[in-house]
Amino acid sequence: MLTVPKEVIIKEVGPRDGLQNQPSEVPAEDKINWINQLTEAGYSYIEISSFVHPKWIPQLKDARQVAAGIKRDPSVTYAALVPNMKGLEGALETDVDEISVFMSASETHNKKNINKSLSETYPVLKEVIDEARLAGKTVRGYVSTVFGCPYEGDIPTDQVIEVSKRLFDLGIEELSLGDTIGAANPLQVDRVLTELEKHFTFGQLAMHFHNTRGMALANTLVSLEHGIITFDGALGGLGGCPYAKGASGNVATDDLVHMLHQMDIRTGIDETKLQKAARFIQSKLNSALPSHQMQIWNKQQEEG
Questions:
Q1: What is the DSSP letter of 71?
Q2: Given this model, what pLDDT does residue 252 score?
Q3: Which of 77, 198, 250, 276 is the most buried (most CB within 10 A)?
Q4: How far apart, in whole angstroms, are the C-alpha atoms of residue 255 and residue 214?
Q5: What does the pLDDT read at residue 184?
Q6: Residue 247: what pLDDT?
Q7: Cβ pair 40, 74 in contact under 8 A
Q8: Burial profile 130-151: b = 16 or more Cβ within 10 angstroms, e = fewer
Q9: What is the largest CA-CA distance in the chain?
Q10: DSSP bridge partners of 149
Q11: What residue ranges define each of the domains in the chain, with the CATH number in brackets?
Q12: Can 241 be counted among the known catalytic residues?
């Protein structure tokens, strides 16, 4: 018989991780409206944007405008990803609640993604983390390619543990473990989490699955059995993988919430309001969202 938590935390990353991969830019006012709808749906955590140079991610060039324009609920944490001190400056000026920093478990992926080796990345992140904490902000870390790298293949779990330990030593409060290319399978997730629980409490860890090969919910189930209670998701399955053309994006929050509710696991999220928010952003993207929940809704609409 499965032993799973009674309640989990879903962290919505669609406004950042989902929209940054879209071929067209969504206007700031639509992003603001969408994030407000996500707040109304009952999330406790929304990653609203990334304060990265527009040259690298033009889809998020309006991070300041979005952060300044949303309606804030004091019960919700509004977070933003920052790559460096310049990005942190924008995040602090707009008073986001939490700062997210990122790096890879893969040396090659890290160099291609942020143009630095792993050892060169730590001092940059230390400066950002120290300054963010000095400003009274909590800090979350992301480590990507935990379950596979497009350049190096499998990443040794010892390497994942080493990077994770370094990030906690630098001062992050929580670490999100990323299946960046959607390579993970349930047995692999079980094996990696079995090793990680020797070094970390699972209250410190979150899972960030991509659904490239359709295994995100299966991997989520294994994580639940291990006692993980925090999961990242992107509404409608927004996102994508630049290393796997045509692949779907992050695990779809609406599919994830539906599965959890069917299992009598509480999330605090209203599925009706969640679907409304999904329909809204789908209309602004002018393309069907890939989640199963949205495919059902779209089919119902076609059939009248």
A1: P
A2: 97
A3: 250
A4: 12
A5: 97
A6: 60
A7: no
A8: ebbbeeebbbbbbbbbbbbbbe
A9: 57
A10: 153
A11: 9-302 (3.20.20.70)
A12: yes
> Position 221: which residue type?
L
Distance CA 122, CA 167 (A): 8
Selected catalytic residue, list 80, 91, 128, 241:
241
Beta-carbon contacts of 284 under 8 Å, excluding residues fewer than 6 positions away, are 26, 27, 30, 34
3-state secondary structure of 13: coil
Contact call for residues 97 and 77 (beta carbons, < 8 A): yes
Q: What pLDDT is recorded for position 119?
A: 97
Tokens of 19: 């929209």
The H or E element that residue 80 is part of is: strand 77-81
Helix (H) or strand (E) holding 142: strand 138-144
What SS3 class is residue 100?
Answer: strand
Instruction: Find where tokens 């924008």 sit.
Output: 90
So what's the pLDDT on residue 246?
58
Q: Are 235 and 281 in contact (CB under 8 A)?
A: yes
Can you list the residues of the chain whose pLDDT is less than 70?
Answer: 241-247
Query: Of 78, 133, 128, 138, whose CA–CA distance to 103 is shortest?
Result: 128
CB-based burial of residue 299 (10 Å sphere; 0-12 exposed, 13-18 middle, 19+ buried)? exposed
Residue 238 burial (CB count, 10 A): 28
Cβ atoms of residues 128 and 88 within 8 Å? yes
Q: What is the pLDDT of residue 241?
A: 66
For residue 171, report the phi and psi dihedrals to the nearest 5 degrees. Answer: 120, 10
Q: Which amino acid is at 49?
A: S
C-beta of residue 255 within 8 angstroms of C-beta of residue 238: no
Type of residue at 277: A
pLDDT given at position 173:
97
